[in-house]
Amino acid sequence: MTSNLQRWALRGGAVLGMVVMVAVAVLVAVAVWLWTSQAAMEREIEAQHQRVKRLPAGAAPVAGRAGWQALPLPVQRYLAFAFPSGPGRHVTAEMSMEGRFRRPQTTTFMPTTARQSASSAQPALMFDATTPIVPGIHARVYDAYIDGRMVMQARLLSAVTVLDERSSPLLDRISLRRWLLESPLYPQALLPGGAVAWQAVADDRARAVVRFGGAEASLLARFAPDGALLSFEAEEDGDLGTPYHGSGEHVARSDYRLVDGVRVPMRFVISRRSAGVLHPFWDGRVVRLRLQPPLAAPYTAAPGGAAGA
Q: What pTM was computed for the model?
C-alpha cells in the first residue's frame, strides 16, 4: 500500500513538473513575442517620424504685411499676431503633449501622452500616443499622413492589432484636414504661397482651404480681436460611429506662447461634432515644442504650465 502511494506521488510530481515546465515555456514565449512586437512597433513609429523630418523645406514663405494684403482682414491680423518678427522659413515642428483622451464610442477619459511631428512646407504629419485601457494594459497608436497617403494603427500592449486603417480617398482627406487643424502649432503652413488658401467669411472668421495630392479639405477659423486664432471647425458634422476620431470636427486653442519668435497655442481641446453638439475627445497641452531648423531655444512647459527653456 505504501509503495503504491509512493509511486502515485512520484508520478504526480513528474506530471506537475512537466506542467510547470510547459507553463514557464509558454510564458517565456509570450514575453519574447510581446518584446519583439513592441520593439517592432516602436521602430515603425520612429521611421514615420523620420519620414516627416526628412521632407524638403520648400520655398520660403511669403513674409511681411505687404505680401498679405490680398488676404482677408482677420487673417492679416492673425499673421501679424503669430509672426511679430516675420515668419522666417518653413519648419518641421516636433512636439510632446499630455492630457486626457477618450477613445471612440466610449465616455471615459484616460491620461495620455503623445508626440507629433509635422511639416509646415507641405501637408505631412505623424502622431503617436500611449493610452491606458485598464490597469496593466495600454494602447499604442499612431496616425501618419505623408506624401498624400495615411496609415493608422492601434495595438494593445503594442502587440495585438485592434485597428489597421490604410489610405483611401476619404481617410486621406480626413488626414489632410487633421494637418490643417493642427497647423496653428506650425503657422508658417498658413501663410500665402503654400498649400493653404484663405477665403473671407466675416470680421472675425475666415475659411482655410488646403489642397494637396488631389485632395481638398477646409476648416472655418475664428479669431480674437487681438488676432489670435481661437478655433478651427469643420462646416459639416462627423460620423460618431467610426472606430477612429480622425481629425475631429472642432479644436479650441488658447495659452499662446512665443516660441522661436512665433506665437503658438499650448492648450487645446479637440472634439467630434454631431447634430451641432461638441463631444471632446483630446483635452491637453503641448509640454515641449521644437522647431527645426531651430530659430532659438525650444519651448518646455515647467510644472504648473509656466514657460521654461
A: 0.84
